[in-house]
Amino acid sequence: MPIKVIIPSGQTEITVNGLHQWDYGRKLEIHSTDLPAIVEVHFACAGMEDAVVRSCNASTGIVVAAIPNQCLEQTTPV
């Protein structure tokens, strides 16, 4: 089951809760009314030096992105 978030118009950053360390295979489902056709999703956790970037296609205001395992190995929120 994906983690679902709704991003209000104009907001570009959100912290997601509900994930657990080593919770591999999870996906993030982003809902927003103003998404372009191709979206770059930057995944990062506190303490990471660089974000893991995923390019995704937006369809009818929804993007589904696989959460990188590198983030799921961390103990801090994504």
Provide a descriptive summary of the structure in words.
This protein is mainly β. The protein has one helix spanning 69-72; strands at residues 3-6, 27-31, 38-43, 52-57, 62-66. Strands 1-2-5 form a three-stranded mixed sheet, with no helix packed on it. A two-stranded antiparallel sheet has the order 3-4. A hairpin with an 8-residue loop joins strand 3 (38-43) and strand 4 (52-57). The longest helix is centred in the last third of the chain and has 4 residues, at 69-72. The chain is globular. The mean pLDDT is 89.
Entry summary:
With 78 residues, the chain is mainly β. 5% of the residues lie in helices and 33% in strands.
Record field, number of beta strands: 5
Strand order of the largest sheet: 1-2-5
Q: What overall geometry do the principal axes of the alpha carbons give?
A: globular
The percentage of residues in β strands lies in 25-35%
Q: How many helical stretches?
A: 1
Unreliable segments of 5+ consecutive residues: none
The portion of residues assigned to helices is: under 10%
Structural class: mainly beta
Describe the biggest sheet?
Answer: 3 strands, mixed
End-to-end distance: 17 Å
Q: What pattern of helices and strands is seen along the backbone?
A: EEEEEH
Chain-averaged pLDDT: 89
> What is the alpha-carbon Rg in Å?
12 Å
